[in-house]
Amino acid sequence: MNVQVSRRGLLKGAGAGLAGGSLGALGFGGLQPAMAAAVRPFKLAQMRETRNTCPYCSVACGVILYSLGDRSKNARSSVMHIEGDPDHPVNRGTLCPKGSALLDFVHAETRTKYPLHRAPGTSEFKRVSWDFALARIATLLKEDRDKNFLAKNEELTVNRWTTTGFLGASATTNETAWLTYKTVRSMGALVFDNQARV
Amino acid sequence: MTNLWMDIKHADVITVMGGNAAEAHPCGFKWVVEAKAHNNAKLIVVDPRFTRTASVADLYCPIRQGTDIAFLSGVAKYLIDNDKLQHRYVAVYSNAGYVVREGYDFSEGLFAGYDADKRDYDKTTWDYEIGPDGYAVVDETMQHPRCVMQLLKKHIAIYTPEMVERICGSPKETFLKVCELMATTSSPERTMASLYALGWTHHSKGSQNIRSMCIVQTLLGNIGMLGGGMQALRGHSNIQGLTDLGLMSNLIPGYLNLPVEKEPDYASYIAKRQFKPLRPGQTSYWQNYNKFFVSFQKMMWGEHATKDNDWAYDYLPKLDVPTYDVLRGFELAKQGKMTGYIIQGFNPLMTFPNRAKMTEAFSKMKFIVVMDPLKTETARFWENHGEYNDVDPTQIQTEVFELPTTLFVEEEGSLSNSSRWLQWHWQAQEAPGECRSDIEIMSGIFLRMKEAYKKDGGAFPDAIVNLKWDYAMAESPTPTELARELNGYTVAPTPDLNGTIIPAGKQVDGFAQLKDDGTTACACWIYSGCYTEKGNTMARRDNTDPGDRGIAPNWAFAWPANRRVLYNRASCDPEGRPWSEKKKLIEWNGKQWIGFDVPDYGVTVAPDKGVGPFILNQEGVARLWTRGLMRDGPFPTHYEPFESPMANIPFPKIKGAPAARIFKDDLADLGDAKDFPYAATSYRLTEHFHGWTKHARINAILQPEAFVEISEELAKEKGITKGGWVRVWSKRGSLKAKAVVTKRIKPLICDGKPVHVVGIPQHWGFMGLTKKGWHPNSLTPVVGDANTETPEFKAWLVNIEPTTPPSDAVA
Fold first, then answer.
1. What is the ipTM of this complex?
2. Last residue of a domain, which of B185, B205, B235?
């Protein structure tokens, strides 16, 4: 595995082999080239491959994401297939019943897509703009912080805020976690936790 | 994990206790299968249920949930009584010979210094005797009556095989077979790997469960060894990372502590964290605490953190209680003392104990914000879903936001797995709708607050307006920019270890270059090395594995310092020769330490200097006895769960774990065995990942419906039929589910009486594609582990009866 082989290149080769060689093997050798061309090429060969890791448990199996769209400016890419990464030293291409079904997770009907807001006492969410949501949340936080921030406990400087809580997410990246840490801590917030306990 | 997934293949014995890896970590568990197939390894499984892991075990031993300490203390007693120790390892690499000061005592289940009102200990006497030279007194013969080995023998003397059977319900003969098999690894040639997960942590004494196995593994000489170690399998994909980065009430990234209010200035804070060696010549690596702390403050507040202002020490909030963990947070909310909660990718309505309490707590808050890629139950705690969420929205005055976030396929960045690998991943598609990354959302909220503080002022704006924020796009810092901060860089020219000056603005190579004089900045010292001047080491993809050790040193980056097996110096004898040539990791070549892994030791420190292999510890050795470092005692002790079907046999006066925290109302909410006679436990299934996969169609098809698992004996006793509906209830709540009547659960005979186990998997709720159902946390008690506040999800009490289906269900 020292040699850096482009998996994408390998697959393209394999796809070409399928269109030519195996058709021949199946006895289509004498047919017109037009017939062979009409057979759909191997779909994965056209896709972009991206390395990623399974987002579920902490084994962190390597996965390869196959997406349509080459990420150029006007092409909206979408993941069409996910499989285990055979180069990954832990899972070596295998996935469990959860990892094997990741595509359904990525395209779940119940994914959130738009900021929603539920006003007190009402029975439904209403769609709002990001600007409305972020501005309103910042206002709610500042109001509470200004009201309940404790700068001193008798003569001791304590600079703490304990009336709004924060929960970090253990499926977010380290980079997200660090940004969350620095913003939350700069506010003096102490009620701060993550899923490590559950 | 002290070791890593592939390393399991080298084990001779593998014990899965406190976990069910075949079900919950299937692709990692393949390395257990590999060890069985190619290393002739034997697999031991100790579990209340005959699990998927047990189904491939060489030896399965049942145990009543919540009694692991009695079991493992019994194993330790067996090893000592039968002289099955790795003698030199124990003598030189553990604190077995350390003499404990006078005044330390243990009687009737309590250590010296207990205060029943505070449910806490005065730990003054839990320390070593210090000699005239200022160092801990050691009796190398281990005969001193107050030395750790003698105290250990005394402490575990009660855990005879007969007592283990009475407490745990584990048949004596099977228990002894477990002991014999584990004991074979006292040979330096053989190792045992311990694999555990939430089955050990979800207890009021979870940390001490793990400590019990640490004692066994130290006695056997299995720590630091290839195929040995303590393998915390961990849960979520980045739970290791979130813990490393200190997203908790009391931590600073890299396992530094947030100050408490009785440490009013930097001098008083750092004085308690000098961690001087307790034996001559020891490394005691935490002596560098000040360098990591100052570098962290510089990364937070840049030029505003100076020597003159104590490195902006006042900018950090100061704790008045040990932790503001989530159990305390929602207790405060229930008391009406919380205004709001910001929740990133978390479903606390379902995942924390006592659903009714959680609903009440949420309903009392002014606002909650949920950032999640999925429509969660938490974001809809106010919405009526029939009997599955029976609330009246008009009575709930909480303002709620649900903000859509990106998924793993729509972003790049690193995750830290249980092997401590930081693996980078890349984006493959655009996010649907208007999803934004958590980075952009948190930045958006923060920058708006910062603007408002600049414009209008308010409570202590300094720490907010001075937070270092030098990203190219302020509203959208890139993962690369943040990763470079995690690694750390120089902010002024500074000499490296050889005296060469590193110019300002260079990424450091590792934490050894960090300084306490303000010339370096680093967000998380243990991650230093993840993004150096050479580039992003987390993105490395070279899987070559010299010597077939299962190390693959150039795949991604492992903290600390790209070291794959922690404490690997202990894989060699005191002279620097591997205990086992077959299991060689590193060795001393006369000039330096070389080998397959990065040495966990000074690279040029000769073995004859007598520096211990556990370089983070002040003693330089492994601890069989933990001084005052654990809140609930320096040795593990058997305590019953807070809700238990039986009294504590050796210590009948003690109910629950004496130093575990429990709030007043939650104490009143505990049931007893008279009304709730059955021992309940919660767990996971291989087809589902928590509450996430019920949103994925295939998984929803594979495991569509909630169920409760009981024995044939209990089913017969209660008139419950296979596939029939049952009601299960505790003091705190009730749920309905279908009954799975199985041979996989059998009644345990504890102290001569049968104990029935009720198993409740945890994957259903009222959102997603599966049938609606209840989560076991409708029933669980609110009590946390004494050290970590991890809820007791694995052992509580219920009652059960046949019932009618829920109104929307087809019978």
1. 0.97
2. B235
Closest chain A residue to B484, measured at CA: A175
Q: Find where tokens 């708006």 sit.
A: B448
B524 backbone dihedrals φ, ψ, rounded to 5°: -150, 100
In a domain, B686, yes or no: yes
Q: Residue A106: which of B409, B427, B789 has the nearest Cβ?
A: B409
Q: Do A89 and B555 touch (CB under 8 A)?
A: yes
- The amino acid at residue B123 is K
Report pLDDT digits (tens) over B590-608. 999 999 999 999 999 999 9
Predicted TM-score (pTM) of the model is 0.95
B752, two tokens = 């001569």
pLDDT exceeds 70 at position B616: yes
- B715: domain CATH number? 2.40.40.20
- Specify the pLDDT at position B564: 98
The CATH number linked to B59 is 3.40.228.10
Looking at beta carbons, which residues of chain B come within 8 Å of A140?
A: 339-340, 366-367, 399
A165 to B342: CB separation less than 8 angstroms, yes or no: yes
Q: Is the dihedral of CA B596, B602, B608, B610 positive or negative?
A: negative
Residue B102 half-sphere exposure, CB side, CA atoms within 13 Å? Answer: 1
Structure-token pair, residue B729: 């209830």
Quick check: B341 and A165 CB within 8 A? yes
Residue B150 lies in a domain: yes
Tokens of B314: 């006042």
B516 contact partners, CB below 8 Å, separation of at least 6: B290, B291, B293, B294, B295
Instruction: Quote the distance between the C-alpha of residue B654 and its chain's center.
Output: 26
Mutation choice for B interface testing from A105, A109, A110, A174 by most B CBs within 10 A: A174
d(CA B414, CA B544): 21
- Report the first-to-last Cα separation within chain B, whole angstroms: 45
DSSP states of A104-128 as a string? HHHT-TTB--S-EEE-TT-SS-EE-
- Mind telling me how many Å the CA of B315 is from chain A's nearest CA? 7
Composition of chain A by helix, strand, coil, percent to 5: 40, 20, 40
pLDDT at residue B323 is higher than 70: yes
What's the CA angle centered on B588, arms B586 and B590, to 5 degrees?
155
Which structural domain, as residue segments, surrounds residue B679?
664-802
Q: Encode pLDDT of B419-450 as tens digits.
A: 999 999 999 999 999 999 999 999 999 999 99
- The tens digit of pLDDT for each residue in B771-809 reads 999 999 999 999 999 999 999 999 999 999 999 999 887
Q: Which of B253, B64, B93 is nearest to B165 (CA)?
A: B64
Nearest alpha carbon to residue B640 among B627, B653, B621, B625: B653
CB B352 within 8 A of CB B780: no
- CA–CA distance, B534 with B777 (Å, rounded to integer): 48
Given a cut of 50, whether residue A19 has pLDDT beyond it is no
Amino acid at B583: K
Query: Which among B235, B259, B274 is the end of a domain?
Result: B235
Measure in Å the smallest separation between the Cα of A45 and chain B Cα atoms. 16
Domain assignment present for residue B137? The answer is yes
Please report, as a single letter, which amino acid is at residue B668: A
Min Cα–Cα distance to chain A from B166, Å: 30
Cross-chain residue pair B401–A115, CB shorter than 8 Å: yes
Find how far residue A40's CA is from the centre of its chain: 30
Confidence of residue B103 (pLDDT cuts 50, 70, 90): very high
Helix axes B172-183, B161-168, angle to 10 degrees: 120
In a domain, B291, yes or no: no
- What is the count of structural domains for chain B? 2
Residue B149 CA to residue B162 CA, distance in Å, equals 23
**Are the C-beta atoms of B450 and B464 separated by less than 8 Å?**
yes
Q: How far is CA B399 from CA B53, B329, B441, B538, in A?
A: 45, 18, 18, 40
- C-alpha B117/C-alpha B37 separation (Å) is 54
